[in-house]
Design a protein that fits this description.
binds 6-phosphogluconic acid, 26% helix, 6 helices, 10 strands, single chain, 251 residues, 3-stranded antiparallel β-sheet, globular, alpha/beta
């Protein structure tokens, strides 16, 4: 039993290459605003999960300085993943997001859903899972449906905190899970693939020459056990937004 749901994949994938991160950020700002407005019109709220890492930082700055007024009071922001560290640690995704993004505009406190840091990584993942269940009012095996999930990709093909070879990539029961791996510095908490693949829109934002090899592999339909290649929203849209360097090995 698990949250795999409907196994048919109706995902539409779009790959777009831009000159640089500035162009990508401008493009994503427009998509973000469009999705937010449509979601608010239909469901009276816009629910997004955002990632840490260095690549989206420029985007977060752009979004807050956008000339289009964003309906922040109807926007709910979750985190895709988090390090099991206090919020004031330089390693904390929430810490970075708060500084580069959340501190720059006014959004009701209750609209920000950071990953709670509890006494253990496991307990944090459980509490975050519960927060998702409560917020989305989920019954039984139902999955949350994010309007938009923003993801990055690591050089090894990880996305969120889903790493190649880790058991977390096969998690089907929990909405969020703890990740302990010798090769990563901190324990982490991550949304699981069933949640990511149930989103209405998923955007990968990838920049830099160091990502060219992995992008070639993922888009070439290579190793299907690579976490980023396992992101295939079941009825949502999937965007790979790349800068020219990350796309440099694509034909
Ligand atoms: C994190 C992430 C992670 C990240 C990739 C890419 O918190 O680190 O969620 O999956 O998106 O590692 O990171 P960069 O943008 O720094 O290359």
């Amino acid at each position: 039993m698990g949250r795999s749901g409907d196994s048919r994949v109706r995902c539409s994938r779009k790959v777009v290459v831009f000159k640089d991160i500035d162009e990508i950020s401008e493009f994503i700002s427009k998509i973000w605003i469009g999705i937010a407005r449509a979601a608010i019109e239909k469901r009276n709220r816009f629910i997004i999960a955002i990632s840490g890492g260095s690549t989206p930082q420029r985007l977060y700055q752009d979004i807050t300085s956008s000339k289009h007024a964003l309906p922040w009071n109807k926007t709910h922001i979750f985190l895709v993943d988090e390090r099991f560290v206090p919020f004031d640690s330089p390693e904390s995704n929430y810490g970075m997001i708060r500084e580069k993004f959340l501190n720059r505009f006014s959004i009701p406190k209750e609209n920000i859903h950071s990953v709670p840091i509890e006494e253990s990584c496991q307990a944090s993942a459980q509490k975050y899972g519960l927060e998702l269940k409560t917020f989305f009012q989920l019954q039984g095996w139902k999955l949350p449906e994010f309007d938009l999930i923003m993801l990055g990709i690591g050089e090894d093909g990880h996305t969120a905190s889903l790493f190649p070879g880790d058991k977390a990539i096969h998690e089907k029961v929990h909405l969020a899970c703890a990740v302990h791996l010798d090769r990563i510095k901190n324990e982490r908490i991550t949304l699981t693939l069933p949640v990511i693949n149930n989103a209405r829109n998923v955007i990968f934002l990838v920049a830099g020459k160091n990502k060219a090899n992995i992008i070639k592999e993922i888009l070439g339909g290579g190793d299907l056990e690579l976490p980023a290649a396992m992101v295939k929203p079941r009825h949502g849209r999937l965007f790979f937004l790349l800068d020219s360097q990350a796309a440099s090995l694509l034909i």
